[in-house]
Amino acid sequence: MNQFRIRPLLLLAWGAGASLACSGGGAVNIGNTSVIGAQLSDYAATWDGYAQAYTFMPDGSDRVRLTIGTDGHGTLRVGNAALLPAPTDPNVGYPAAGQPDLFTGPNQGLWGGVVYPVYAAQVQQDRIQAGLKPNDYYGAWCSLQTPYYIQDSYVNSGDAGYVPNFVYYCLPGAGGTASGSGADLQCFTQISAPDASPSNQQVDCGKFTLCNKNVCECTASSCVSGPVVPAGTLPSGYPAELDAALDSTGKTLTGTLALSTDLRVTVVLTRQ
């Protein structure tokens, strides 16, 4: 009689203990719950593929290549154009052939012929996201530039009225004019000096265009491709962004290459 009454109590006590073990603070290993694409190292590889219904200048290829390291550092290259030669002359525009077109301004997307660094790579909701800067097309050229401390405008300082505003720049003056066309095209930057009338200095029209389009940002010591993005900025804070996810095999990476606020391209990449 006593044995019949005690056995259910023992079973109840065992069940309560099991419940506490599962709901308590201690971890219980119930198997591997990792998801492919949940960590940055899942994307560490060389990838090769294409952009859907989109081609890159100057060769008209849809090819896209991506390399990602386990630390998130990597590069992206588009198109099949040969890599451009490194710039050597800081006083002329880059590239010397004039692509992108110097009359329409600098690169508004990603062009073939250069290798773009990827920035701030992270994994969010099982997708890799990384920032890109189209003006890295001119990164090596910007690094050759001499920073000039110039007056670029006047600002309202309140009680003191309008006072000169000075910045570091890749031309010895701000603004300027262009005249002529074709082989006769001439460009001049306007130099302002304290207590003196502005004067014009002739400069190469390629350099004139790129500097006035702010492809470079300068400090007292150097110039780099713009914009300068603060450390800790998320990939969405860069001018362009890659956002892509792995398939269940981890061999195909599909996502969006946002080249601007109104241009988004689907890319499909295969692990090499």
Structure notes:
The protein is mainly beta. The protein has a domain at 40-94 and 113-136 and 239-271: Beta Barrel (Lipocalin), CATH 2.40.128. 13% of the residues lie in helices and 36% in strands. The protein has three helices and 15 strands. The protein has helices at 2-23, 139-143, 205-212; strands spanning 45-51, 63-68, 74-78, 116-124, 127-132, 148-156, 162-169, 174-179, 186-191, 199-203, 216-218, 223-225, 240-246, 252-260, 263-271. It has an eight-stranded antiparallel beta barrel. A three-stranded antiparallel sheet has the order 8-9-10. A two-stranded antiparallel ribbon has the order 6-7. A hairpin with a 5-residue loop joins strand 13 and strand 14 (252-260). The radius of gyration is 29 Å and the shape is elongated. The N and C termini lie far apart (73 Å).
